[in-house]
Amino acid sequence: MANLQQQWLSRKLVHWTVYGVFVILFGISLYSSEFNLENLNGAGDRFIEFFTRLVPPDWSVTELVFNATVETLSISFAGTFLAVLISLPLGFVAASNISPRWIAHPLKLTLGLIRSVPIIIVAVLFVAAMGLGPFPGVLAIAVHSVGMLAKFYAEEFETADKRIIDAVKGTGASWIQTVHFGVFKQCIPQVLAFTIYRLEMNFRDATVLGIVGAGGIGTYIMVYTQSFQYERVAVLLIMISVVIFALDQASFWLRRKVQ
Amino acid sequence: MTSAYPAIELKDLSFSYDDTIALSIEHVSIELGERVFILGKSGSGKTTLSSIIKGRRTPQHGTVNILGEGSAWSNRSLQKRIAMVDQEFNLISRMSLIETVLSGALGRTSSWNTLFGFFPNREWAKAEEILDEVGLTGLGNRRIDTLSGGQKQRAAIARALMQEADVLLADEPISNLDPELAEDALDLLVECVQRRNIALLVNLHQPRLAKRFATRVLGLVDGKIQFDGNPDSLSASEEEFIYSNPAEPTPSTTKGIHGESATTMA
């Protein structure tokens, strides 16, 4: 009995040490981010002022904002579509059950590297190289998404049941047919679900891309907030919320449907 | 297809896992039209033998000659001439039944067509014919995961028949089925094989069923053939010998219908 209790105690000690470390990290991060509740003094009034300046929304810009939203949607759709086209083949190459390890592994690392660059930096890069407009936005979304989608596809393909792959191979199927029927068909629901999820994320990302000049609704977010036209910002916020909510619902419905 | 060569010829075959010899066969020759049932305990080498014939494993020693064209592990084009029905069926649960049957024709259909899901009209006609043959008429558009265990087994048989192979291997094809379903499935398998005059190799646990359906029985004990002959000549004492001898412990084979478990050997 004593032995069991001692083991329990040593396990608990480990847990408490871990909790302690987190508390200390939390403290350090509060300190270094200049966390100070006194700064909230008077902030409430300014919040209220900001919100009162949002009303009444200036509906005269509705058409403009609507078109910008459509542009943002197009950027995210086009970017995601491009990313899927690139990520699917890359996913097969990066899957260690399909491709040899010496190519799958470095490719996965490269994808991680792409992923680690924040999308806004990617966008700045493309805008600098190609000028203002939605097209650099599309490319930024595509590049950033490939880093994530291809890695996810590869990991999904790796979970494919090997015996089913063998069964397909056993029909005399070619390499492409084996990958298509044995691997891909098994993974379709997960692949679709994650792609839809990524599309949703891409729309959110695409709304801010305009801030660096990559087209869409972000352009107006920047223009209107910097010129203090909060009544127009209100229209932007409403529009973005509606679209994100709709996308969210559609994505939930679609992901449940594809099983 | 008539051939001067036997459907399967095994010579000096030996296969070992690490240090354990799993299989050691001097010479076996199987003709087209033969229905060979391989009896033996779990771990006696039945599955190893069928996976070597199928070309999924390469033996350390010896040769396999399929219709005089070599072994399936070195000659990939032989793959489509050897069909296999696995214990776990290994079907793709999201695919429709008809697509599953059609996938048996992958080996003779161009990759570009199948990439877009196209199969030639004659393959569609053939697949439908086979569905009728295995008693799944009218279920073609159903998804595999909506079928019962017995129906899945028939689907697996249909896919194998679609391959138009010369050799059909079945590894414990009925161990996931109820006893009545099991006999029906073997009945069906044997009928279909007889119509086609191909070689059938079945790994089985039940001597009673082997006697009913086989033209020839091989008894495997610890990887060696201890009986080879007419099923009627298999005496009770020989039967007992095949099943009483100690064999290696069985690796676990627990699984769902298209389960996740890893059955590596035996």
Structure description:
- The complex is a heterodimer of chains A (259) and B (266).
- With 259 residues, chain A is mainly α.
- Chain A has 2 domains: 2-51; 61-258, Orthogonal Bundle (MetI-like fold), CATH 1.10.3720.
- In chain A, 81% of the residues lie in helices and 0% in strands.
- Chain A has helices spanning 2-32, 43-54, 62-94, 101-116, 119-130, 134-158, 162-169, 175-209, 217-226, 230-257.
- In chain A, helix 6 (134-158) packs across helix 8 and helix 8 packs parallel to helix 9.
- Chain A is globular, with a radius of gyration of 25 Å.
- The termini of chain A are far apart.
- Chain B is an alpha/beta fold.
- Helix content of chain B is 30%, strand content 22%.
- Chain B has helices at residues 46-54, 97-102, 111-115, 121-133, 149-162, 179-196, 207-213, 236-244; strands at residues 8-17, 20-30, 35-39, 61-66, 82-85, 167-171, 199-204, 216-221, 224-229.
- In chain B, the strands form 2 sheets. Chain B has a 6-stranded mixed β-sheet, sandwiched between helices.
- Chain B is globular.
- In chain B, 44% of the residues are buried.
- Mean pLDDT of chain B is 85; it is low at 247-266.
- At the A-B interface, helix 7 and helix 8 of A face strand 5 and helix 3 of B.
What's the short story on this structure?
Chain A has two domains: 2-51; 61-258, MetI-like (MetI-like fold). Chain A has ten helices and no strands.
